[in-house]
């Protein structure tokens, strides 16, 4: 799947050299239908890009049953908590079908931002735009994170 990286909308318009920077930090992930990929409250470690399949985002209020918030499909991103520095995922993700995805560890993504700021910023900015329909403040929050990284004031738990 990593060979398809330059063709994924998230990574389009990157040069071959820039794509080569991303390949070592992303890994393949797959699972069958019905798999709990992570639970609400689990440590937020990875961000996922769905290559094929469908997942359900569930939220469980402390005093009720889980609620399906939305379904995500090919090209969608989940696990945003891992990018913004939240220590735990704020919802659960369950595969509705077989999932083929790419995932990246939080610390690897932020190392990319620190070591290759132009490429890292573009990738993070694109990720923010991808989740912004689900989270209105994503773009603003990521801009603040990028600024704090630039000035060494992370406040992030990597």
User: Which class in CATH terms?
Assistant: Mainly Beta
> Helix count, per DSSP?
5
User: Which consecutive residue ranges, at least 5 long each, have pLDDT under 50?
Assistant: 153-158
Number of domains: 1
CA radius of gyration:
15 Å
* Helicity level: 25-40%
- Mean of pLDDT: 81
Distance between the termini: 26 Å
Query: Under the CATH scheme, which architecture would be assigned?
Result: Sandwich
Widest sheet: strand order? 1-8-3-6
Under CATH, the topology is which? Answer: Jelly Rolls
Q: Mind summarizing the main beta sheet?
A: 4 strands, antiparallel
Q: What is the H level of CATH, i.e. the homologous superfamily?
A: Jelly Rolls
% residues in beta strands: 25-35%
Total DSSP E strands: 8
Shape: globular
Protein structure class: alpha+beta
Give me the strand/helix succession.
HEEEEEEHEEHHH
In quaternary terms, these chains amount to: single chain
């Amino acid at each position: 799947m990593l060979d398809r990286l330059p063709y994924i909308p998230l990574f389009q318009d990157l040069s071959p050299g820039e794509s080569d920077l991303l390949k070592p930090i992303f890994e393949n992930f797959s699972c069958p239908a019905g798999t709990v990929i992570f639970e609400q409250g689990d440590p937020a470690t990875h961000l996922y890009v769905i290559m094929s399949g469908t997942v359900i985002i569930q939220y469980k209020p402390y005093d009720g049953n889980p609620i399906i918030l939305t379904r995500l499909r090919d090209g969608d991103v989940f696990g945003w908590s891992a990018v913004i520095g939240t220590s735990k995922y704020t919802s659960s993700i369950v595969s509705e079908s077989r999932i083929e995805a790419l995932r990246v560890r939080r610390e690897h993504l932020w190392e990319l931002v620190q070591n290759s700021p132009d490429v890292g910023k573009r990738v993070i900015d694109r990720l923010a735009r991808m989740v912004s329909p689900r989270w209105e403040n994503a773009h603003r929050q990521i801009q603040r994170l990028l600024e704090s990284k630039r000035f060494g004031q992370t406040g992030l738990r990597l």
